[in-house]
């Protein structure tokens, strides 16, 4: 869907970062004075793009459902900085009403930064409708978006068993085949999270096999470590036995 030329839209030094690296979590005990929601709601309609952007960013710190219709509208703003800010804000104020607009914009937005924010927001919305666009992004988008799509799919654990099962094939494919180590690492982590929600069936066994393969064969140490951490987190006997055997042999 998108070719690697889209990477020109991203800073190579930060393209694999997560939005969570820059957006601090909301805490009830926060001592930081938050923006005035009434003022920020008004600024979302400001004719100046800079003001709209700042207002949208404010809703990364403010939880207020009144902002949702405005943020949805800003997903199609002419300014990409406004669009990406709106996507992040929706991720902090997830809404079922935002899912379809997010999916639509993900399909058509040319800007890699915006698509990154959208996949993060789609994950946070925890909606079954997000499964297909997130797996498509993991398979076809630029590396930066694939990285976040892999992480966002972990949220399917809070959606349904069917959503978990639907996410596993794309994650296994990415873990085994993606050329970017960071994407493989995130896929390994997400598979581990989803396996905790699965019974011991064929899907579970296939996912564990993929983690074992990555742990034993991936050329990147970080990927192997993440696969190992997932196996340990799931507590699968086969994975635990392999880890013990390889460590006794001084494999690392």
TrEMBL record:
A GO molecular-function annotation: oxidoreductase activity
The alphabetical list of record keywords is: Antenna complex, Lyase, Phycobilisome, Repeat
Pfam families assigned to the protein according to its UniProt record, in alphabetical order: HEAT, HEAT_2
- At the top level, the lineage of the source is Bacteria
Q: Which InterPro entries match?
A: ARM-like (IPR011989), ARM-type_fold (IPR016024), HEAT (IPR000357), PBS_lyase_HEAT (IPR004155)
Q: List the GO cellular component terms.
A: phycobilisome
The record's annotation in Gene3D superfamilies points to:
Leucine-rich Repeat Variant (1.25.10.10)
Family indicated by similarity: Belongs to the CpcE/RpcE/PecE family.
Q: What is this protein called?
A: HEAT repeat-containing PBS lyase
User: In which organism is this protein found?
Assistant: Trichormus variabilis SAG 1403-4b
Organism taxonomic ancestry? Bacteria, Bacillati, Cyanobacteriota, Cyanophyceae, Nostocales
